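Example record used in the benchmark description.
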Amino acid sequence: MSGSLDLDEVDRAILSSLRENARISLQEISRRSGVSDATIQFRLRRLKSNGVIERFTIATSPAATGYAVTAIILVQTDGDRHDRTVSELVKVPQITEVYGVLGEYDLFLKVWCRSLDELKVIINDNIRSLQGIEDLHEIIVMERAKEEMPPV
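Model output (structure tokens):
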């Protein structure tokens, strides 16, 4: 999205309903918001075409899918190899989030694994082994108190 779209109450009601349940029907959104089906359909198309809605997806239970271990890894990179390092890290399926950050470290990674042994392999074989990695700080998540997308 090149610029931000001015979202009104109807747009936010649509986004809020979809955030709660991406499979909700247009009729149900219409009923909840008090706006016609045709307006909801038009607004939904506009939100998608303007990049406000990037995709429709599901949220899975990490425990139910076997991913019992979550780690946050802070990474210091060599400035000359930073971009190449990022391009390699985003290819690792267990690394679900990669953020460039300011401060002592350059990157913030979120990693999901089935076990601590798998995490050890990912850290040693897929992260530490990359040229451009200078230092890591690994944090094992003990509890997910909250994990959501930004508010609408």
